[in-house]
Specification:
CATH architecture: Alpha-Beta Barrel
Oligomer: single chain
Order of helices and strands: EHHEHEHEHEHEHHEHEHH
Strand content: 15-25%
Bound molecules: pyridoxine-5'-phosphate
Radius of gyration: 17 Å
Length: 252
């Protein structure tokens, strides 16, 4: 049996639904309160440059009204750095952001972007914000994140979660396992996120060195059919079940 794995609930898409009508309902902060009651260990929110879902006011309220640690997802821009340093969330996850994309389509180029990213990692680290870099499960990117001095990485597991057939799934799963092993060797705390569902959470949560999963879209979508609280509890249950499997009994 390996240690407990934390669940960060991403509330972005509650705000997406709210913003579809431009009013105040549904309130993503109410979703964060419910998530806390249902067993989430943290709340994750992505303040995008275009404010398509989470707003500045949501970030303000999450700091004031929610006791759980906030993980602020942000692009490496001066505007976001200023906001992070002002709000001082528990954690900040630096993600790549393209205006025209539907969602965060891939990981950061930590290797190629070293000169640009170093200042963000340093300034937020100096402000005692736990910085993570959202990267592809690629050993080159894991090493680059370590060289940047980031204490945490989050692996983009979207390619695995969206894989269409077994061989593709197997290929992407291997990459995640190897990247998590590399992170462990380098002393980095390793998280995973993007596209995780009831179906894919077990094989991911079973990887013993993963410390946290950040999950949003599936939870909010499933909440249409059952309650958000029930959906989060079921995700938590599946994570705990995966963690109860002994390493010797694990298959991919
Ligand atoms: N982690 C990061 C860094 C992300 O950018 C996202 C998507 O906003 C997630 C986790 C959650 O992904 P999903 O909404 O697909 O569960």
């Amino acid at each position: 049996m390996t240690g407990r794995i934390r669940l960060g609930v991403n509330i972005d898409h509650v705000a997406t639904i709210r913003n579809a009508r431009g009013g105040v309902h549904p309130d993503p902060i109410r979703a964060a309160v419910l998530a806390a009651e249902a067993g989430a260990d943290g709340i994750t929110a992505h303040l995008r440059e275009d404010r398509r879902h989470i707003s500045d006011n949501d970030i303000e309220r999450l700091g004031q009204e929610i006791d759980l640690p906030l993980n602020l997802e942000m692009a490496a821009t001066d505007e976001m750095l200023e906001i992070a340093l002002r709000h001082k969330p528990f954690a900040a996850c630096i993600v790549p952001e393209k205006r025209e994309e539907r969602t965060t389509e891939g990981g950061l180029d930590a290797a190629g972007g070293h000169n640009h990213l170093a200042r963000f990692v340093r300034e937020m680290g100096d402000a005692s914000i736990r910085v993570s870099l959202f990267i592809e499960p690629d050993p080159v990117q894991v090493s680059a994140a370590s060289q940047l001095g980031a204490p945490v990485i989050e692996l983009h597991v979207g390619a695995y979660c969206d894989a269409k057939d077994e061989s593709e799934k197997e290929h992407h799963y291997r990459r995640i396992v190897e990247a998590a092993e590399k992170a462990d060797e380098l002393g980095l705390e390793c998280h995973a996120g993007h596209g995780i569902s009831f179906e894919t959470v077990g094989p991911i949560a079973v990887i013993p060195t993963l410390m946290e999963l950040n999950i949003g879209h599936f939870l909010v979508g499933e909440a249409i059919y059952v309650s958000l609280a029930e959906t989060i509890r079921e995700m938590r249950r599946r994570m705990d079940e995966a963690r109860a499997i002994k390493p010797s009994e694990q298959s991919s």
